[in-house]
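User: I'm putting together a teaching handout on how multi-component assemblies are represented. Below are the sequence lines for each component of a complex, exactly as they appear in our records. Could you produce the 3D structure of the whole assembly as structure tokens, so the students can see both representations side by side? Please keep the chain order the same as the input.
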Amino acid sequence: MTIIGQKNASQANGAKHRGAPSLALIAAGLFTLAAAALPVAYLIRRALQIDSELLRTVLFRAKTLEIFITTISLVLAVVAFATLIGISIAWALSNVDLPGLALLRALVILPVAIPSYVFTYSWLSLGFLPNGFLAAVVVLTLTTTPYVTLAALAAFRRIDGAQLDVAQTLGLNQLESFFRVTFPQIRNAVGAGSLIVALYVLSDFGAVSLLGVDTFTRAIQNTYQGSFDRSSAALLALILVAISSLVIYFEISFRQRSTLLKSSVRITRRLPALRTLKSRAWALSAILLYILVALLTPLLVLLQRFFSRITPIDLTELLIASLSTISVSLLGALIAMVLAIPVALLAVRETWIGRWSERAVLLVHALPGIVMGLALVSFGSEFPLIYQTTGLLAFAYSILFLARSVGSIRTSFAKVPINLTEIASTLGQTKSRIFYRVTLPLAAPGVLTGTLLVFLSAMKELPATLMLRPTGFETLATEIWNNTAIFRFSEAAPYALLLVAIAAIPTFLISRPDRDSERGELQ
Amino acid sequence: MTNSRLKALISLLSALFLTASLTACAGGENEDASLTIYSGRSQEFIEPFFAAFTEATGIELDVRYGDSAALAAQILEEGDNSPADLFLSQDAGALGAVAGAKLLASLDQSLLERVASNYRAPSKDWVAITGRARVLAYAPDRLAALPTSIDELIAENWKGRLAIAPTNSSFQAFITAMIQTRGEAATETWLRALQKNSPKLYEKNSLIVQAIDAGDVDAGLVNHYYTWEVAEELGREINVKNSFFSPEDLGNLVNVSGAGILRTSKQQSLASELIAFLLSDEEQARFVVDTHEYSIVLPELRPEGLPALNEIKAPRVDLANLSDLKRTQALLIKVGLL
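Assistant: Of course. Below is the structure of the complete assembly, with chains in the same order as your input.
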């Protein structure tokens, strides 16, 4: 049965009932906070070296205002569209009886595996995507929608159909029950997904540079490139940090302090599936349209390029690049998991360390890869033993993409019913035993999803990879870059296709229903 | 997740972790017989030269490929801790930035004397390897009369027909040259007139050449070798040709790729050997044929179908001056191109 708890009061209660965090947990949280603060500290140090005249030129020129307006508009537009499309796709996948559901779920998530540079180039090469702001909105919306879809899919699956029955008995129509019963239960998850979209847009370089849209990330890159002026670039990056703080603040105030609490993990009744022909046809064609433009089109362009290339494929190089990509990205994802769990636990307990480490992690996520790369170069080159090792590169990935896992991990810990841990506690179990036997198994699907998302993101990361990899270490992303930098798009195609193929495996795992829903029974 | 599956996952991850850390360790060994190179020149074009060097001398090269500007920024961040022995750059600006921070060592006189005085740093710490001429790439069927000067490009009849890449270092070097020869005010006037003609802006030279071939624009200011690059990528003849302006016109500027040795390198003589190799007559001739660049040691050689370096009569400019680059960017920002 379901108990609808009193908002706020019960959540505050919940936070208290979860108990005070242990010292180890606090130490782990502080470590993550420090790691995330590293690039920001670097930026402040560099920005302080700027001379006052240059400071005025950078801060008070008309162009900076223009860049500011462009950046904000781009973020707002992409977040709005991606959220709308993401919720719609997730709704359709959860509520309509569709054929090949497992495949569809994986295919709508798979676009995250295509680097935005490759995605944009594919569309540009077809010839009907114009340059400029609108094109950037389209491209970034298509590539970021899966972050919302994924979050919303998980949230929809946690909704108890029985509640909708109750709502209907009480006289609410479909729309009213969506806004009064369904939406409150998905808003936090969707908010977290939309936040990732916003931070993605802030830090994207591939799409905006090809389409000629002046955002802060592009301006930062151009400042390094044109004048090698690290102080001005750092200043621009700090403005970017300020914008991301605003975005994060909005998301936090949008977040509801509690959702409906349940006395049991068991979902009384799954959502009823819509079976009418009309609804099925509409839902299927909308989803297929999205898959066509966001996944099939770039893939077909890549395939066409693949078959039109002149040089034969070097299988050894492909294999080495794949293994390098997989190992270093997995290592990064693993570190991110180890770092994210304490942050999520601390955030669920509503401690200040949890709150601030989560915010710091989100803030870092909006930094362009080149800034993160240079910060770690500046720090890492002091230690020749770790500098330019796969370990440091993996660490960079974990910090850069921690934000993508912390949200889903926090949500899944928050959903662990308090009474279960209380029962375990009354049975005389120790805290750590409760964590390993009760909390972690229940939160495992969310933890895995978050970890795999870091893996997917790390696989296609480029600017930090170029700086931090061991010399001579080639990943699929660097091989793609090696070729696209000299316009060899066809030679890049095998690597890009392989990247998508490898990414398909974790994507399929993430999108499987038993990965992100709570288990019906305890094991 | 069941326990057994969790265990399987954990063992898989630890196996990968081990592999990764072993790879990491392997990178640190046998540093003595090898040189570490930060190369802003792309792997595709420069690797055959590196391979020839290793074959000739037995010296192993560890090459880190990247964007010239990003590598320069990386070296600046590394400072005295840089593991690099030699920095090979696509353009003079990136070398100038590293030289300006006093991170490059003085080169042997014998190396410097291989090239004419305008193709080496006045500070004697880097030297040009190849030349890259600025040209007007155009579609022969849509451009009846070829302009003889860059000043014709700002005339009314060019409205909407010209492509430029203002964020690209090669275009910025061209504007730097203009500021050095004509002064800032005259350059601003030229840029504003250009801006008024609403030129199409692209991120890269290669995209400009592709746009000319596709019929989006009629001509563009690019480096000369992109016509080959784009034709090779597309696997067919393209409808784009290169045109030079009249001798000594600013539009004929010659950019350079170049090399410098890190002051902190413990392999100074090996690094010098590599630069000497790249500047040898044989390799210089190979650059002209293989990468379609200009040799600055042998100015009489010409990439297929183009005039020789000594016939172009490139304007003389100081490509290394970093403060000028900042001025260029400030000006481009002022007129709204950046």
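A couple of points students might notice: The longest strand of chain B covers residues 127-138. Residues 24-31 of chain B have pLDDT under 50 and may be disordered.
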